[in-house]
Specification:
Elements lengths: L2 H17 L2 E5 L6 H13 L2 E5 L2 H8 L16 E5 L4 H13 L5 E6 L2 E3 L1 H9 L3 H42 L1
Antiparallel strand pairs: 1-3, 1-4, 2-3, 4-5
Helix pairs in contact: 1-3, 4-5
């Protein structure tokens, strides 16, 4: 590979790292082209990208970025998942893929500038999606309002019922 090509790749990866909210470093040893393409397509569906990169190039690209804290993981075969969107969705895709292909391993990751261990990436994959979490929050916010309205309406309603019972008793 020519020096200009390497510089271009390093610049591309550096830009990806800077623009990404989540980056996960994995191995890919033992995967054939079809499996690798399947993983790439699955990740593309959740607005993520999977790139295989030489360790020397990714070390240079990671310099002065959030991914620099994972430098000790740049050993052996390395591939990186980049995503700008919901960080849970690519983790779920990767977790499902690893269940079927045990030779792939997570080395670590970075989410919003914070280093993630292998266990933290796995925990992230077990979280519900952003949409589900927002729906749950909305439900909780609405439920508290409904409870307050019921409590406030309940007192006058009971008073009206008592007055109605007294009226009926006087009529009879």
């Amino acid at each position: 590979m020519l020096r200009r090509q390497k510089e271009k790749i390093v610049t591309e990866i550096h830009d990806h790292i800077k623009a990404s909210r989540l980056a996960i470093l994995t191995t890919f040893t033992g995967l054939d082209v079809d499996k690798m393409t399947g993983l790439r397509n699955s990740l593309r569906e959740v607005d993520s990208e999977y790139r295989v990169v030489k360790n020397t190039l990714i070390k240079r690209a990671a310099h002065d970025t959030d991914l620099e804290c994972l430098e000790e993981c740049f050993i052996g075969s390395s591939a990186v998942i980049f995503t700008n969107g919901d960080p849970v969705r690519p983790c779920k895709v990767l977790k499902e893929f690893i269940k079927a292909h045990t030779q792939v391993e997570v080395k670590g990751g970075v989410l919003d500038g914070k280093a993630l261990s292998v266990n933290e990436v796995d925990e992230l994959a077990s979280l519900p999606s952003r949409e589900v979490l927002l729906a749950r929050l909305l439900f909780l916010l609405q439920a508290s309002k409904q409870g307050l309205v019921k409590a406030l309406v309940g007192v006058p309603q009971k008073l009206v019922q008592v007055l109605e019972a007294i009226r009926q008793k006087k009529e009879s």
